[in-house]
Amino acid sequence: MSSRPFANLPAGAMGPAPKDQWPELAQLALSRIKAGGCAYGDIRLLETHNQSVRAEDRRIANVGERFDSGFGIRALYNGAWGFAASADFTPDEVERTAERAVEIARASHMLMQTPVKLADEPVHRDRVKTPFKVDPFTVSLEERCNLLRNTCEILHQEKGIIRSNGFLWTQRDLKHFASTEGTVLDFDLLAVGGSFGATAKNDDDFQSREFSVPFIRSGYEHITAADFVAQAPRVAAQAVEKVTAKQPTPGKYDLVLDPAHLSLTIHESCGHPTELDRALGYEANFAGTSFLTPDKLGSFRYGSKHVNLIADNTRAGAMASTGYDDDGVAGQRWPIIEEGILRGYSTNREVAGAIGEKRSRGSCRADSWSSVPIVRIANVGLEPGSETLDSLLAGIKDGIYIEGLGSFSIDQKRYNFQFGGDAFWEIKDGKRGAMLKNVIYNGITPEFWNSCDGVADRSHWREHGFVSCGKGQPGQSGWMTHAAADARFRQVNVINPKA
Q1: Above 60 in pLDDT, residue 411?
Q2: Structure pTM?
Q3: How many Å separate Cα 73 from the centre of its chain?
Q4: Per-residue DSSP letters for 274-338?
Q5: In a domain, 1, yes or no
Q6: Distances from the Cα of 433 to the Cαs of 282, 392, 396, 427, 490, in angstroms?
Q7: How many angstroms separate the CA atoms of 180 and 414, rounded?
Q8: Domain end point (choices 185, 215, 243)
Q9: 181 with 276, same domain?
Q10: What tens digit of pLDDT does each residue of 23-40 get?
Q11: How many domains does the chain have?
């Protein structure tokens, strides 16, 4: 293999227009928007470079590389939006696309019942670049393939392992944003992630164990630090142990949930229901709407006093920490749940005023140049408490410890749910005991979070990024990070998934 990464795939410039021409093209579009009588308009010019490698059963199953570029233009005419996009960066096409966005906005105005009013935002001029030590695009394909093959080989050394998998992923986004208000922003955003796993068989049962390197805005050093090869023997051994483990008897159990598992619970039962467009009833796709309606703001008891869920789009490395969102709003930190009480939502400039806020929280993002920016979940994390993992376990006579991501199901209002995990252990008399399998718990969101009576301290706090959060129609994939420390929940209903 060549030392140049992905040497057998097309190289060269990603986009048809040099980056130094982007500001001129952007201003050309904005001048057309203003000439069309619009009160506001913006343009995002974007180039995306994505690489991935997948391994299965000691072999490389897939190598992927994708280049994508284009621009999207929004125009706001008398309170109505118009949007148009194109992959042709020529000046004539930029002008035509801007005029098309204005035309759509004018047509939308004819049917508009409630005009859009944007919350104010200061003018920003800035450059944002993800800090990193090792650019993943300089790491050879050979090195990445060897890492995954070696990991799979180690997994298969454990007797009972019948399948293995591995995955490495990276993406760079170069973006130029400009608005008619005078904001001009340039972005060079990088993200990496990876995972591997093993499947064991015993009689007619199959069980898997996964190891995840959470998606993060960083360089390849994040992958190196995870040390796949060192972790592989433990993962394989636990997969074998899991397939011979017993299932718990259905009933009420005290649960201790690890940070990786809580990241999904937070995402589904807090992140989505506190997207304000859902809470207002504007968004009903992908199990949309929410039980956390605005009339509950400031008074509804979502959880116990131990539950503090904070949105933070300024936290370094987190997936939604891009400096500014696709409204041109600067990243912020604010409470979502404070000592169990509903305090805030993720908003954009369009909906912030509906709850009396004068400024957006900066949670408006699109997943590509051809997508319309929409409200997305912020980086929402459970604030650390004062416990340790040992002290959380010590308070349990009969319970279950759950680690990692698994299956989930939740209703359209994010009220009734069930969650699984990746690995499970029984807790007996304050100690973690034998491994379990097929653990599923269900509940009602506020009842579940009100059963939380302890959260571990910051030394146990971990972050887990997501890149496949579905929302919208046509569907988009959102990026965000959820963080937590281990937490304890009392008398949660565990069911039999085989029943």
Answers
A1: yes
A2: 0.93
A3: 25
A4: GBHHHHTTS--TTT---S--GGGTTT-B-S-TT--EEEETTSTT-TT--SB-TTSPBP-EEEEEE
A5: no
A6: 47, 14, 12, 6, 18
A7: 38
A8: 243
A9: no
A10: 999 999 999 999 999 999
A11: 2
